[in-house]
Amino acid sequence: MALYNASHHALRAVSPSLSMGGPATMELMDIPDFLVALEAWGLLSPGSNDFVSTHSYPTDTCNSAPDARTNLDCFTDGIISARQQAGNHSFLITEFNCGWKNDQIHDGESTSYAAAFLFRTVNKLRMHDISALSWWSFSSIFEEVGLPTNEFGPFGANSALQTVHGVALPVYRGFQLLASTGNQVLELQGLNASGPVTVMPTRDTDGGPLRIFLSNFAPDDNKPAELNPCPEVNRANACNHGRQAATPEGRWYNQSQTVRITVLGAAVSATASVRMINSTCANPKQMWVKDMNSTAWPTAEELLELRRASSMCQEEIPVGVVDSGVVVQLVLEPYAAAELVLLL
Predict the structure, then answer these.
(1) What is the Cα–Cα distance from 272 to 71, expressed in whole angstroms?
(2) What's this model's pTM, rounded to 2 decimal places?
(3) What is the C-alpha separation between 174 and 135, in angstroms, rounded?
(4) Per residue of the chain (344 residues), what is the pLDDT tens digit?
(5) Which of 321, 324, 322, 319 shows the shortest CA–CA distance to 343?
(6) Residue 295: beta bridge partners?
(7) How many CB atoms lie within 10 A of CB 315?
(8) Side by side, which strands form the sheet with 271-277?
């Protein structure tokens, strides 16, 4: 804190309007101690624009917890608790992603797992006055682990939003979708908020399309896929909450979900389209592995093919009519993320 104290006074002398903060700790640590130290040093001036910052990853503690497969909100609950510790200060999560060094269970941002995690995280935290959620990291070129050794790796490089040559990974597409949210979130009824499906309906206050953001996400833990802690006889009850047993499409605790959405008062002329991120949409690494034999450095022509493979799937979907409005239905495979757009 002596270094922070000296830096604080030096920067304030240059410009009183500069924002400063910390402790930029890992695992949401030391926030109360940081604020106590600021008070002791007399740095908590009234009306200051200082902030509290920290880092969090689900692989810090949540994904290795015994209830990782059933307590789906461990990660965001921890951030909400830390935010409450920060009091009236601006609160910034200056590092987060879907899991650090968790290559036993998924391949980082190279799959839709990260995009589905992003949608769930944003929806859970949007009401809690968090000033920043900064994904680690934007590029696969960063100083902590050295340069990538191939287009999609090593594993640490997959924490990025794009590959070394700028091929967008699924989580990049997730951010791209979220950039189109409306400026208000609408009321939602009938969803089990503790289940794997996220539904965030948004629209601009002056009208325009209804944009609904959906994902199907249940956190993985630090066990290989074949290790199932639940006996076969109990899967459909205590361990699986009524979902299907294991299938090739995903792990036994996160299966495809059919989502049916009714929009009350909508005109029968409404149309709907969806942009999808899943195992076959916006998945350039699948092409790199299967069609390019994981060649370390793709050619310029192959990079063009990978960029095309990184595109989201988009299609129109049927709109049904009910007495109270219109209804649409779509299937979210495990770890899918989607934007449903309804023109009302």
Answers:
(1) 33
(2) 0.88
(3) 12
(4) 788 888 888 988 998 888 889 999 999 999 999 999 888 888 876 666 789 999 999 888 887 787 877 788 999 999 999 999 999 899 999 999 887 555 444 456 678 989 999 999 999 999 999 999 999 888 877 777 677 889 987 655 557 899 989 999 999 999 999 999 999 999 999 988 888 999 999 999 998 999 999 999 987 654 555 444 444 433 333 333 333 333 334 455 578 999 999 999 998 899 999 999 999 999 999 999 999 999 999 999 999 999 999 999 999 999 999 988 999 999 999 899 999 999 99
(5) 319
(6) none
(7) 11
(8) 184-185, 197-204, 207-216, 337-343, 271-277, 313-317
Rounded Cα gap, residues 221 and 58, in angstroms: 9
Q: How far apart are CA 171 and CA 162, in angstroms?
A: 9
Site of tokens 């924490």 = 159
